[in-house]
Design brief:
This protein is of the alpha/beta class. The protein is built from 11 helices and 19 strands. The chain has 2 domains: 2-152 and 305-339, Medium-chain alcohol dehydrogenases, catalytic domain (Quinone Oxidoreductase, Chain A, domain 1, Alpha-Beta Complex); 155-283, 3-Layer(aba) Sandwich (Rossmann fold), CATH 3.40.50.720.
Length: 340
């Protein structure tokens, strides 16, 4: 076994403790990665509080990180020691089912292995061991800290944009301007779509436009909602709190799509809101190898990365506490160097 150090939660506490962590010895197709930067995702909070079905005892969160290859198994040919890499939410899958064959390992019929869960401990640590197939070369054009959130927040936005065919002439709305939403605005804008941010508070309008949005709609203003009826082809709903989908569905045009990405734990939908306009209600989670590789290339070509606040990993409790309050623009990233 390989020994490293990480930050562990027990009993649903955000007061994580620094502990030794065992990683497996390298298989022939494994990489060992020194983790330099790991994003702090809202689903990490959900997992810590036992809301995602993951065991909470001995939980080490973290599923979007960048680092450097430090060792390789004997069969690895695509990487070399010292290569910068990025790792996301999936670290293994069956490789045989239709989803895996299509490069959608995130939907593996036999159950993908997530970066942390029942049998894995995550990226709030100094080293990780995984199959080389699920590590991605980090383009030199991307800053390692700001690129880390692309591996969860970014790919979560990217796949539904591709599925909907978003591009020039598309009207795309992003509901919620947080860790997910701000990357949704950047990516949709770079694809050529006209982007509007939907927010409960008007004070985010300046930020929305700075990120590339050309429109801003205050969702607590009934007049604005009424005037926008039927405007959008696609709405990326990044809101994590329980909410009614009906006001958003009314903003979609004929055969428009509402893609629910914030993983609200409770949802409400009225079927007639879908029927009237033949609208689509869909969801998505993270991404597979095919689209993740495409995203990193696209992000490097268009200069897209997350807007981040970097904290030393010893301040992880502060990051989680502030995240729960929405006190971040727009993604916390932990610097793991203090675990040496």
């Amino acid at each position: 076994m390989r020994l490293t150090t990480g930050w562990q939660s027990d009993n649903g506490s955000t007061d994580l403790q620094r502990v030794p962590i065992e990683r497996r010895d390298l298989n022939a197709d494994d990489l060992a990665v020194r983790i330099d930067f790991c994003g702090v995702c809202h689903s990490d909070l959900h997992a810590i509080h036992g809301l995602t079905g993951k065991p909470i005892a001995g939980l080490v969160p973290g599923h979007e990180f960048t680092g450097v290859v430090t060792a390789m198994g004997s069969a690895v040919t695509a990487f070399a020691v010292g290569d910068p890499v990025a790792v996301g939410t999936i670290v293994d899958s069956c490789g045989e089912c239709a989803m895996c064959q299509a490069g959608q390992e995130n939907f593996c019929y036999r159950g993908a292995v997530t970066t942390y869960g029942a049998s894995t401990k995550g990226g709030y640590s100094r080293e990780y061991v995984l199959r080389d197939k699920f590590a991605y070369p980090l383009p030199a054009a991307l800053d390692p800290a700001a690129a880390a959130p692309l591996m969860c927040a970014g790919i979560t936005m990217w796949e539904p944009l591709l599925a909907a065919g978003a591009g020039a002439g598309s009207q795309v709305a992003v509901a919620g301007l947080g860790g997910l939403g701000h990357l949704g605005v950047k990516l949709a804008t770079a694809l050529g779509a006209e982007v509007t941010v939907l927010s409960r508070t008007p004070d985010k309008a300046t930020d929305a436009r700075a990120l590339g949005a050309t429109g801003f709609l205050v969702t607590t203003d009934d007049d604005q909602l009424k005037q926008a009826t039927g405007r959008f082809d696609l709405i990326l709903d990044t809101i994590a709190a329980p909410h009614d989908f009906s006001p958003l569905l009314r903003l979609l045009g004929l055969e428009g799509t509402l893609s629910v990405l914030g993983a609200p734990l409770e949802t409400t939908v009225r079927m007639m809101e879908l029927t009237y306009g033949r609208k689509n209600l869909t969801s998505s989670g993270t991404g597979g190898t095919k689209h993740t590789a495409e995203l990193l290339t696209f992000a490097a070509e268009h200069g897209i990365a997350a807007d981040i606040e970097v904290l030393p990993s010893a301040r992880v409790e502060e990051a989680l506490t502030r995240l729960a309050k929405g006190d971040v623009r727009y993604r916390f990233v932990l610097d793991l160097a203090d675990l040496d």
